[in-house]
TrEMBL record:
GO terms for biological process: L-tryptophan biosynthetic process. Pathway: Amino-acid biosynthesis; L-tryptophan biosynthesis; L-tryptophan from chorismate: step 4/5. Its EC number is 4.1.1.48. SUPFAM superfamilies: Ribulose-phoshate binding barrel (SSF51366). Residues 149-408 form the Indole-3-glycerol phosphate synthase domain. This is indole-3-glycerol-phosphate synthase. GO terms for molecular function: indole-3-glycerol-phosphate synthase activity; phosphoribosylanthranilate isomerase activity. The keyword Amino-acid biosynthesis applies. Residues 85-97 have a biased composition (Low complexity). It comes from Oryza meridionalis. NCBIfam families: PRK00278.1-4 (NF001372), PRK00278.2-4 (NF001377). It is an enzyme of class 4 (lyase). Pfam families: IGPS.
């Protein structure tokens, strides 16, 4: 599979590194400090320990030992970007920066390394503090999620604290069902039909659309998707916002479905990769709006070791350029839905594949996947002419009485393997 990523990565486009801290940044910073003073004050000590851990160079020594829970904890993905943020507090000769610059570094962490706008965790604690003998309620803006993606990710980080230690996954991992070739299945389907390969999504609900299907039978839905020509399936595993479950992954596999399965999860921690694999996933989603480059690279390595494919999701030019700069990426999903605002615009796929970006994708043999908001054969041909070789579709299928039969309606023709035979 590696051989498909031909050529070396393009030079990192200018402007992707953290901008130098200028006077202008200080001004911006002071303004945000006024808005949410706690955010800055409290984030510095929290990040400092993690930042120290990541100082040693590009490959942190933190992956040296294996199979203890504490190693598992260092695979948690926040330290690299905290480290960069702290690094930004040192100026020129390496002397410690003035206090204001340290605050600027903390703010850079808040506004995001690699252009990531969401904050990975609440800065100081709960969103509301009860203060003093009079029970004042002090709302803490810095600790209130600003959008749904931030909310989901904060909850996911909290969920990670409840997980089983990594070493406990070792046995089940050894007994996990063999990995199937997700990338190959997409390619084969595209070659067979001349249409974008379908990744059909098994999704009960979403935060933007509510419950999509009351009588939700994941195994039946998966079976009808497969029968009607889906190349791969995407299975929502997030319980809180999508009413999904990791148990759907093994249930679908155990029922004999052959289509490779994408674990559709908000991955914030390497632990989730192992867990997805032992539940039978053949691929995972990595969201560039959530994960800094270092985390994506690290997780890609783990996926490779586990034999899983990774669908790296982007939703704007900046994320696309970041991901194109990472070696070994084979699948790039272009989400037409902005996960912060829920706005859907399928021309996003076209915009992100235009010009040099599209050429790089073609040269590297990457499959671009058009994601979200696809309802009609016109939509499918629109994203196909934009350059995608696969599409990820949920709502427009899952809401139909027979989601499998709906596939022919979506593509304007029957794409089931039987019809081709
Ligand atoms: O239901 P739609 O509009 O066809 O979208 C499917 C899929 O693209 C969407 O569910 C999705 C894309 N990226 C995600 C990340 C997390 C959760 C869900 C998603």
């Amino acid at each position: 599979m590696e051989a498909l990523a031909i050529g070396s990565a393009p030079p990192r486009p200018p402007g992707l590194a953290l901008p130098p801290l200028t006077r202008h940044h200080h001004l911006l910073l002071h303004r945000s400090q006024t808005l949410a003073p706690r955010r800055l004050v409290a984030s510095a000590p929290m990040d400092a320990a993690a930042a120290g851990a990541g100082r040693g160079g590009p490959v942190p020594p933190r992956c040296a030992r294996a199979e203890t829970d504490s190693e598992d904890a260092v695979a948690t993905t926040s330290s690299p970007h905290s480290a960069e943020a702290e690094g930004a507090a040192e100026q020129g000769n390496g002397a410690p920066a003035p206090v204001a610059d340290a605050a600027a570094a903390a703010a850079a962490d808040v506004v995001g390394v690699d252009g990531i706008r969401i904050r990975r965790r609440p800065v100081t604690g709960p969103p509301v503090h009860y203060v003093g003998p009079f029970q004042f309620r002090l709302e803490n803006e810095g600790n209130t999620p600003r959008n749904i993606l931030e909310r989901i990710v904060w909850d996911k980080e909290a969920e990670m604290k409840e997980r089983r230690p990594l070493y406990m996954l070792k046995g089940p991992l050894e007994n996990a069902p063999p990995v199937r070739d997700f990338f190959g299945a997409l390619k084969a389907s595209f070659d067979r039909t001349g249409l974008p390969a379908l990744i059909a999504e098994v999704k009960k609900a979403s935060p933007s659309r509510g419950v999509l299907r009351e009588d939700f039978e994941p195994v039946q839905i998966a079976q009808t998707y497969e029968k009607n020509g889906a190349a791969c399936l995407s299975v929502l595993t997030d319980a809180k916002y999508f009413q999904g479950s990791f148990d759907y992954l093994d249930a679908i596999r155990n029922a004999g479905v052959q289509c490779p399965l994408l674990c559709k999860e908000f991955i914030v921690d390497a632990w989730q990769l192992y867990y997805a694999r032992l539940k039978g996933a053949d691929a995972v989603l990595l969201i560039a709006a959530v994960l800094p480059d270092l985390d994506i690279k690290y997780m890609l390595k783990i996926c490779k070791i586990l034999g899983m494919a990774a669908l790296v999701e982007v939703h704007d030019e900046r994320e696309m350029d970041r991901v194109l700069g990472i070696d070994g990426v084979q699948l790039i999903g272009i989400n037409n839905r902005n996960l912060e605002t829920f706005q859907v615009d399928i021309s996003n796929t076209k915009n992100l594949l235009e010009g040099e970006r599209g050429q790089t994708i073609a040269q590297k043999g990457i499959i671009a996947v058009g994601e979200s908001g696809l309802f009609t054969p016109e939509h499918i041909s629109f994203v196909q002419s934009a350059g995608v070789k696969a599409v990820l579709v949920g709502e427009s299928l899952i809401k139909q009485e027979d989601p499998g039969k709906a596939i022919a309606g979506l593509f304007g023709k029957d794409i089931s393997p039987v019809s081709a035979a």
